[in-house]
């Protein structure tokens, strides 16, 4: 059972952690649609979740299931088509001036590709200090702080005078992480932070992230294809399929006893753990349906071994099947 990360739907009774710990970020029925060739594509579909301070939420699912759109909305880079995202209780789209500045220094991100996410014309010291400069002004960017940040991600102080292209992929991701922690954020969104890296250095970066998370007490949203990495990092995990959460549970419960047929398929496909073959599809029949024209009823039914007539008619709700363990399937369990 997770003791403090509560991703119960909003307006429900709090979990065993008690009501004292308010969520840091809370999403209530958040959707995002795009218009593609005059058709509506629902990239994220009525997602509700809440993350408490200091907790790590893992997000898994096949390519195209809405993970990136979800994290971009939490970063305020993308507007929800409907639903509300609250950060410390305030709708992030109601934030103005001071509140917005506070949001930008409290929420940061690390993206997949450290090659394109770092400005090649800036020295590393400018790159890592950019959020500090933007939020606190140039005077706050002192050499001591730069050295401290570089040290905390395992880079020498001399790295500050160099340019991003002078570093390997793993080192560049360390630079991106230093930038992400530079304002001491309370929430860091990590979107596939190790998938572009050589397998040999992924573990080092994961260990670094784990240590930084424990030391800083920041909450993380950890988005990844790699189920092993998500298990290692997360307190709680959500599994997404065609834009919606189909299962969410404390990490151990999800991995030891997955309940949704899709989660089971993902886990089977990832065993034995082999980071060189992260193809999540192999044990799940068929292709991902188009999000423009998703199946009626249960969105997973066209690929599901348990599918029955009811599944085409009725959309399963995300219901609690074990304590803190929710699944959107008529027949799970
Ligand atoms: N700006 C956009 N315009 C149109 N469709 C979009 C846009 N952004 C995302 N989509 C679509 O929304 C769906 C969800 O995409 P998203 O990138 O969030 O998924 P993902 O799970 O992060 O995938 P990946 O693991 O490949 O990054 C996909 O079908 C994608 O094509």
UniProtKB/TrEMBL annotation:
<dbReference type="GO" id="GO:0016887">
    <property type="term" value="F:ATP hydrolysis activity"/>
</dbReference>
<dbReference type="InterPro" id="IPR003593">
    <property type="entry name" value="AAA+_ATPase"/>
</dbReference>
<feature type="region of interest" description="Disordered">
    <location>
        <begin position="266"/>
        <end position="294"/>
    </location>
</feature>
<comment type="similarity">
    <text>Belongs to the ABC transporter superfamily.</text>
</comment>
<feature type="domain" description="ABC transporter">
    <location>
        <begin position="25"/>
        <end position="267"/>
    </location>
</feature>
<keyword id="KW-0547">Nucleotide-binding</keyword>
<dbReference type="InterPro" id="IPR013563">
    <property type="entry name" value="Oligopep_ABC_C"/>
</dbReference>
<dbReference type="Pfam" id="PF00005">
    <property type="entry name" value="ABC_tran"/>
</dbReference>
<dbReference type="InterPro" id="IPR050319">
    <property type="entry name" value="ABC_transp_ATP-bind"/>
</dbReference>
<keyword id="KW-0813">Transport</keyword>
<dbReference type="InterPro" id="IPR027417">
    <property type="entry name" value="P-loop_NTPase"/>
</dbReference>
<dbReference type="GO" id="GO:0015833">
    <property type="term" value="P:peptide transport"/>
</dbReference>
<dbReference type="GO" id="GO:0005524">
    <property type="term" value="F:ATP binding"/>
</dbReference>
<dbReference type="Pfam" id="PF08352">
    <property type="entry name" value="oligo_HPY"/>
</dbReference>
<dbReference type="InterPro" id="IPR017871">
    <property type="entry name" value="ABC_transporter-like_CS"/>
</dbReference>
<protein>
    <submittedName>
        <fullName>ABC transporter ATP-binding protein</fullName>
    </submittedName>
</protein>
<dbReference type="GO" id="GO:0055085">
    <property type="term" value="P:transmembrane transport"/>
</dbReference>
<dbReference type="InterPro" id="IPR003439">
    <property type="entry name" value="ABC_transporter-like_ATP-bd"/>
</dbReference>
<dbReference type="GO" id="GO:0005886">
    <property type="term" value="C:plasma membrane"/>
</dbReference>
<keyword id="KW-0067">ATP-binding</keyword>
